[in-house]
Amino acid sequence: MKVYSNILEMIGHTPMVEFQNLDTGKCRLFGKMESQNPGASIKDRIAVSMIEAAEKAGHIKPGDTLIEATAGNTGLGLALVASQKGYTLKIVMPDKMSMEKEYNLRAFGAEVIRTRSDVGKGHPEYYQDVAKRLSEENGWFFINQFSNDANIQAHYETTAPEIWEQLDGKVDAIVLGVGSGGTITGIGRYMKEKNPNVEMVLADPEGSILADYLKTGDIKEAGSWVVEGIGEDFIPDICDMSLFDKAYTVSDKEGLMAARDLMRKEAVMGGSSTGTLLAAALRYCQEQTEPKNVVTLVCDTGNRYLSKMYNDEWMKEKGFL
Ligand code: PMP
């Protein structure tokens, strides 16, 4: 029988699709459909690798309680794994993240603790600081994707080789965002080993410090942005910024409109970070004078943002439409 023995086996091996109805200039643009993972985001991969690494190291065993700070998708990936392996899950998530993510997490039986979105790292109400404190107070295991090497490893061992094989090694550029930095460090390392000429391109929301850091080497004060899951107010431990060759800053409006356009023209319903990546990828493609194969990620499903970016009323209220 051609069957999977459980849902976790269905993580990864996501399809790659060409976007042929967008203005990609001389380039071909491909989207890796991470939204097709069972938890509907790229974070399923790291949920498995981080939990299995902690088990192997003897830090956790089924029955224990895990806590994680997340924009939501890592939480949803962890919820799949926790359900199948028998862990209790606590999720700390800033209040700007969509209600769909919270409902989805609670449906899995995870406890969701919301925190302020308007404070930065080091503030006692910042989501990562809250998760760390709760873990220490209660003896829960803090997964901490921002400093966890198993996050990098998942992308180095699975996402990156899949991209390489799907394009028969004919990869010229990859456009990515940074949340924890796991995807850039894992995919970037793999690609540069295969071919140092592969360009790694950062798509950064306006207000994040990362694109500016690449250009100037300075860390400015962070602003705010509505796109979820990418953009940072600090440089995560596992994020190797030296792997990036180029950076684009994308406004909320440009990113969200790009995602809506992707849905109308390609019938691919990605989330808000997908829109930011796509907007940067299109600018990159249009600037090229030679034909190139460019890859970007459909990081998660747009179903998570039906009340926000796919809701015209919300878009108008925010001044994006
Ligand atoms: N897109 C979405 C929707 C995410 O939730 C995340 C992770 N927070 C990313 C992109 C960024 O990936 P990474 O954490 O590997 O940098």
TrEMBL record:
Pfam families: PALP. Its EC number is 2.5.1.47. Pathway: Amino-acid biosynthesis; L-cysteine biosynthesis; L-cysteine from L-serine: step 2/2. PROSITE patterns: CYS_SYNTHASE. Residues 9-300 form the Tryptophan synthase beta chain-like PALP domain. Keywords: Pyridoxal phosphate. It catalyses: O-acetyl-L-serine + hydrogen sulfide = L-cysteine + acetate. The lineage of its organism: Bacteria, Pseudomonadati, Pseudomonadota, Gammaproteobacteria, Kangiellales. It is an enzyme of class 2 (transferase). This is cysteine synthase. InterPro entries: Cys_Synth/Cystath_Beta-Synth, P-phosphate_BS, TrpB-like_PALP, TrpB-like_PALP_sf. It comes from the Bacteria. Its cofactor is pyridoxal 5'-phosphate.
